[in-house]
Structures are given as structure tokens and as C-alpha cells.
Amino acid sequence: MDTVFFNRVPKVGSETLIELMKQLSDINGFTLFREKQPKAILVTLGPIQQLQLAEDIADLEQPAAYVHHVNFINFTHLEVPRPIYINMVRDPVERVISWFYYARAPWVQAQRQRNFPSVPGPKVQWLKKDFESCVRNGDKECNYIENSDLEHVSDHRRQTLFFCGHSRKDCMPFNSERALQIAKRTVESEYAVVGSWTDVNVTLTVLEHYIPKFFKGAHQIYHTESGGLASNTNPLKPHVSEEIKARVRANFSREIEFYEFCRQRLHKQYLALRLDSNLNY
């Protein structure tokens, strides 16, 4: 299938990549499709929902790129033509801090009120909570317990979930060895590229050379117009001390291992390209 499927992880800088793909679509002649804005992000689907989404993506006019907040869907097992999978990852602790403040941002709360007008909004005390106090006080929201289940629909501490899949038993327990190994195998066997903005030039180079039909010219656009690319940053996010980050990292051991695994794989892809063609990036 001549379709890129970006099953984007929240809070990894995906808006920047989407804006880059939007500009590349005009240059490289493909159509960029995005999921309709959902009222709530539901990333874990049932078998029928997975099949429906896979068939909808397969029916897109090609060449196409499709973007959706959703866990990995195995098109092959569903007997649907397989797309070109891509994704991005981010340091898990930085990501969970970003999500903590994003969920409290005024524009996010305003959208929540529009989407769910009959549901009472959060208490002012919750909105004003800061991450450091949350961790120091042992609040449930910031108490990352290994093998704990999903706390609520907005519990986005599991980056591995987007690569592990839709099994509650195998993929939902937080920081579990099982979810880690499944996610690693999926990345290795299914994903063309899993990038990271921590390694921006490496990511752009690998995208350009592994998926040239879609990403040719990515370097030039990014470095020429990066100031105009969407980033979805939160100016209200305060500084978090390294002490608190270290305390949280102790509970994210396997999530961190997965993140480093993806970065190592990305750098191996980049090194292979340099050895083959003497790239100067």
C-alpha cells in the first residue's frame, strides 16, 4: 500500500511533523489525511474498530499519509494491505511532565467544556497543582506504580502502548516487561522509521532516505521554515527540577529503555546510510 500511517503518540512533537508533512504533500504529490478531531482521545480499540479503521485507511486515494492518535494496528493480521508505519518518541519523563501541564492549560479546559458541557469541570485546586508538589506529596496522579492499570482515559504515561497494541492484558500494565518486549518487536519488524526531535537531523535524514516518496526535501523545509512549523508548545509549563525528574525516572525504567531502544535503532539506520552514501548531514 502506498500509504504512510503515522499513529502518533501524544506530546512527542507530532504537530511539527504533521505541519512538515503538510508542506511536503504539495511538493511530493501525496494527500495528507488527519482523523476527525475527537472529543476524547481513545487509543485502544476493539477488533471491529481496528478492522474498520484499517479498511478506511486502505481505501484512501493513494499516495496518501494518514495521521491518527491510536495504538499500533496490525494490518497483516486483519488481512488488509500493510501501510508504511512511522511514529515519533520522546523522553518519557519529559513527555509525562508535558502532558501534566497540557491537561491543565486554559485552552484545553475550554475545549473540554465545549465537548462535554454537562460534565463538571475540574476543581481549581487540581488546575493549580504543580508537578513537583504532585510528586513530593505522593498524589495518585503522580504515583507511577509498576504494572498498574489505566487510571482514566487521559492517562498517557505509557509510550510503549502505541507500539504494543490493543491488548489490555499485555499492553496496559504500566512499565511492564511484557509490554516493553512486544513494543520493541513491533518497532523492529513493522516500523520504517521511529524518530525523535531530540535527534532532529538524524530523524529527517532517515525519513528522507527510507521513505523518499513522502519525505524528500524534509531537511530543507524544516531548517528553512522551522519557525513557522506548528509545535503545540505550552508557554505555561514551569521548570521542573532534576531531583524530581530523577525520582520519577526510577519508576519509568522500561519506558526509558524503550525510548533509548528506538533512538539506537534510528542511529543505526542513519549510520547505515552514511556508510552507504557518505552523507554530509
TrEMBL record:
One of its GO terms (molecular function) is sulfotransferase activity. It is a single-pass type II membrane protein. The keyword Protease does not apply. InterPro entries: Heparan_SO4_2-O-STrfase, P-loop_NTPase, Sulfotransferase. Signal peptide: none annotated. Pfam families: Sulfotransfer_2 (PF03567). It comes from the Eukaryota. It is found in: Golgi apparatus membrane. One of its GO terms (cellular component) is Golgi membrane. The keyword Cell division does not apply. Keywords: Glycoprotein, Golgi apparatus, Membrane, Signal-anchor, Transferase, Transmembrane, Transmembrane helix. Its main location: Golgi. Belongs to the sulfotransferase 3 family. This is Heparan sulfate 2-O-sulfotransferase pipe. It comes from Hermetia illucens.
